[in-house]
Amino acid sequence: MAMTGPDDVRLDALEPDDLDGHTIDELADYLDAGMLPADPSIDDSAACQNALAALVRLRQSSLGSLDAAAAQEEPADESWIGGVLANISLEARAGRDVPLRPVAPTERPVMTEGAIRSLVRTAGDVVPGVVIARCSLEGDVTELDAPVRVLVELAVRSGVPIHAVAEQVRQTVVGVLAEQTDLHVAAVDVRVRDLLPATAVDAGVYDAHETAEEDRA
Fold first, then answer.
1. What is the CA radius of gyration of the chain?
2. Which domain holds residue 85?
3. Total tally of structural domains belonging to the chain
C-alpha cells in the first residue's frame, strides 16, 4: 500500500464517446431529476448505467451532492472530486472483451472490461470510510488464464484505520472477482492516495469495530 498524489485527469478532457454520447454532468443532472423523463439513450447504455451507479455511491459516501461539495470544500477537494468523476467516466467504457470459461464448445461468453471495473468499484465502495478514486486492470485480460494485476486507488476518511480498510478493500475485491469472473488475478494492489475529512458516521463504525475486537481479545 502506498500514498500517492492527486490525479491530473480533467473532466474537460473526456470524450462524449466514453459514455455513449453523454457527459458526466448530463448523467448527474439526469440523476438529480430522478431519471425522469426516461432517456433510453442513457437507460439502455451499459457505460451510462455503470457511471450512474458510481455517482450514486459517491454521493452516498457522505461527500454529499456534488454541487454542495464543490461549494463547501477547499479547492483541493473540489479538484479531487473532479478527478474521481473523470475516472468514473473513463472506467465506465466497455473496453476490452474479457473471456469467461465456456460451458459448451460452441460458447464464447465474455464480460466487458468496463463491467469488471464496475464490479471492483462497487466492491470497494461498500467498505465504510472509503471512496474509490480509480481502478484499472493491468495485463492481457483478453486471454483466459493470463495473469492480471488489479490496481485500486482510494481515499480514506481521517481517523479510519488505513491499513485495516485497505486490506478489507483488497479482500473484498479478490472475493468478488473470484466469484463473478474467470480472471487469473495475480495480485490486487491497493493504494491510498488521499485523506478526506472525518465524519461521525465513520468514526462510530470503527469505534464499534475496535470495541468488538477488544471484547474478543
1. 18
2. 10-93
3. 2
Average pLDDT of the chain, as a whole number = 75
Contact 158, 150 (CB under 8 A): no
Least confident of 47-51, 86-90, 138-142: 86-90
Cα 98 to Cα 78: distance, rounded to the nearest angstrom:
34
Its pTM stands at 0.62
Helix 46-58 vs helix 113-125: crossing angle, to nearest 10: 10
3 in any annotated domain: no
* Residue partners of 175: CB distance under 8 A and separation at least 6: 123
Question: Which of 47, 78, 93 corresponds to the end of one domain?
Answer: 93
Least confident window among 5-9, 35-39, 173-177, 204-208: 5-9
Note whether 24 and 130 are same-domain residues: no
DSSP H or E stretch at residue 132: strand 130-138
